[in-house]
Amino acid sequence: MEYYLAAFPADLHDYPHRCTGAFGYEQRKLCGNPDIAGLVNLLNCVRLVICLRHAREQANQENEAARVRELADLKEEFLHNLSHELQMPITVVSGFAQLTGRMMDDKLIDRAAVRDNMRRVDSEAGRLERLVMQLLDAAAIENGSFTLNCREMDIAELLNTVACVHFPVMDNHGNTVAVDVPPGLLHLYGDQERLLQVLLNLMSNAVKHTESGSILLSARLEGSSVAVTVRDTGEGIAPELLPQIFERYPKNRAAGGNGLGLYICAQIVQAHGGQITVESKIGKGTAVRFTVPIMKWEVEQ
Strand, coil or helix: what is 189? Predict the structure, then answer.
């Protein structure tokens, strides 16, 4: 029986006769030697392993290159969308400031119109401030300078504060809001300002995407953590958006946002040692749930 060796790393078909100077019958005889045959088989196996490894490394490199290109495209799209979001409040503030200035130059000043313009300016200035703060938070998260100022807080008070802030907006959308915190569930440990930021963002999203429906803020004790849920009966989120909804640069951005808010929410929760998840069905609503440890030592571990 004859054995053949494919090129490794060059053409080793004539390896036996190059080692011995034999040709023809002597070469075939040498290849028929069990020891040489075993060596040939071993080298063939080694070659196969190396070829597979090279193929895998090449595939990994190609995948990484594709991922880098995709990330660059997502960053470019994000910056494009962000520039429009920043431009809009600046344009509105500038426009109403000029309009109010012209009204002040007139002999007859419509005070009601001036107050309305000032309210619009204040609203857009607040929107611009939130966008800038989101950018600063995202930068702090990425460079590792994001910190928490943790202490004990009343979870029921926190949820009621979020509900009260949104009461006027809820009326405009025809929504109702309820807070459900069982008796005895009083305190958790965390950064109150940051957790309030998370809840305000989740509540704002719920209100924005719910019309003539209901929103429930609830908290439950789960082991050594408190699970907080913001549940709405709104339009829901498309299934293809759910896996990437908390990513820095989501591939398919939901309408009406730059994606930074939910990314920052997820990072705040994870910094507390908790987890954040989302469940949603189109036309049925969305529930965003996150956990926060109760005690100080659980956050520090």
Answer: strand
